[in-house]
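Hey, resending since the last one bounced:
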Amino acid sequence: MPEHNPYRTNRNRISVGELKQKLDDGESPVIVDLRDAYDFKAEPETIPGALHLDALELGDKSDLLPRGKDVILYCT
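The structure tokens again:
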């Protein structure tokens, strides 16, 4: 029997324009900036409200992501 995964995954890509439209429409997805420390230091600007996690931490910190909301992951 497959292991139960409480997180629904949908691995579709979303464009910057589509994300902007979601935000303009009042949607509030969880946005996660997955850039590593080196890339983040070089370009510290991020999407307002985004959670910054190193991609290697994502599995260990997945409990920080709310269930039942869209989660948008981005990196460089």
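The chain has a mean pLDDT of 83.

Sorry for the duplicate.
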